[in-house]
Amino acid sequence: MKCKYCDKTFLDDDNLVLNYFEHTKISHYELLDDEDKIMHDIREKMIKSKIDYDQFKKEIGDSDLVFNSNNSDIV
Length: 75
Ligand SMILES: [Zn+2]
Hints:
By secondary structure, this protein is mainly alpha-helical. 69% of the residues lie in helices and 0% in strands.
C-alpha cells in the first residue's frame, strides 16, 4: 500500500492500517481538509480501540470467564 500524499510504501502486515494512519497524521495532517481531519481522527480511534480490544482479549484469554465474573458483581 502506497501513501496517498508521498512515495512512502507500507508493508502489508497486521499493522498496515494503523501505520498508515500514524504516518498520515505525522507527515500530512496539514494537507487534510477539515472534513478529512475529522474522518481521520474517528477512524484512527476506531482502529486503535479495536487493537486495544484484541490485545485485551489476548491478555485475558478466556473472555467468558471475565464476562461471568462481571455479571456476578451486578447480581
Ligand atoms: Zn506519506
